[in-house]
Amino acid sequence: MATPYQANVTNVGDADAGGGPVVRTIGISDLHRALQRGWEDFNAVPSHAIILCVIYPVIGLVLARLVHGYSVLPLLFPLAAGFALLGPFAALGLYELSRRRETGESASAWDAFQVFRSPSFGAMLGLGTLLFAMFVAWIMTAQAVYTAAFGYETAANIPDFVTRVFATSQGWWLIVVGCGAGFLFALAALCVSVVSFPLMLDRHAGAGEAIATSIRAVLRNPVAMAAWGMIVTMLLVVGSLPFFLGLAVVIPLLGHATWHLYRQVIVPDPAARPVIPPSRPRKPAADFPANLFPWKRD
Is the peptide bond preceding residue 46 cis, with omega within 30 degrees of 0? Predict the structure, then answer.
């Protein structure tokens, strides 16, 4: 089935030396188009997307509780910003839903979990582990920057914390250095993952090829990718208020939009023959949760 992206072959770049994916040059209008199509996907399957992403607010609140003993206030912003590092991996099911809608296949909650049967899921898991390591490193860096600025003394309350950050020289040092460090982490994550996971899902590429293609996409489209990074950051900040609950909408939107951004950036391979796993019979809801463990059934 032809996709709307196959006809758009203008501003096409060169493939890598090994004949890898061809990267297009895109503009700001392509980002708007990706967001628009992502919103259409979200409207088509909103309940499924929220079910897949409701774990985000839960993770955020759990992480906040875990660091409560070290004063949760200094790490609330780093935790919210850190979702930008983990988002590309956690949105795998959303990419699958967008891919299925694009090709006219069924797009249900169960269909989203077909991503776990992808031949490249091992590579996706490896890259996801890398992003998680970056997330942990970012949280540790943020804690170290705060400690360097204010020591180990915790803020007495929210007004005290706000005063420390915005009304002292140490606070402004914290803002400048912290945002600078966060920018470097976000830039690294953007370079290695902006189209990596959709590429692995779509073409069953390895992690190395996917990362290399993602970096080439960023280098070929520095302005557009910088704008995309700012869009992601702003939406995540908005979605993190209050208590990360808005991420249940923002993450699905960005996940679907990332798939369409991938389609805008990477030229489709007309010779591609996707590996389609054998279909499985639908399991009635009455069998839940037993139907999650088919190997235990005769």
Answer: no
User: Looking at beta carbons, which pairs linking 4-10 to residues 24 or more positions away fall under 8 Å?
Assistant: 5/263, 5/264, 5/268, 6/268, 6/270, 8/264, 9/267
**What DSSP designation does 277 have?**
P
CA angle 210, 213, 219 (to 5 degrees): 145
Read off the pLDDT of residues 67-95 as tens digits, 9 standing for 90 and up.
Answer: 555 566 787 788 777 878 888 998 898 99
Q: Where do the DSSP E strands lie in 72-161?
A: none
- Chain centroid to Cα 202, Å, comes to 16
How long is the chain?
A: 298
Do residues 264 and 24 make contact, with C-beta atoms less than 8 angstroms apart? yes
Reference 38, options 259, 231, 263, 195; nearest CA is: 259
**Rounded distance between C-alpha atoms, residue 92 and residue 294, angstroms:** 22
User: For residue 213, which of 185, 246, 191 has the smallest C-alpha distance?
Assistant: 191
Q: Side-chain half-sphere of 107: how many Cα atoms within 13 Å?
A: 24
Question: Is there a contact between 38 and 256 (Cβ–Cβ < 8 Å)?
Answer: yes
Q: Rounded CA gap, 93 and 106, in Å? A: 13
* Phi, psi for 24 (deg, rounded to 5): -90, 160
Segment 19-68, tens digit of pLDDT = 679 999 999 999 999 999 999 999 888 765 566 666 666 666 666 665 55
The pair phi, psi for residue 8, each rounded to 5°, is -90, 90
Give yes or no for a contact between 97 and 111, defined as CB atoms under 8 angstroms apart: yes
Question: Residue 293 has which token pair?
Answer: 């463990």
The closest of 218, 248, 261 to 38, measured between CA atoms, is 261
- 159: its two tokens: 């007004």
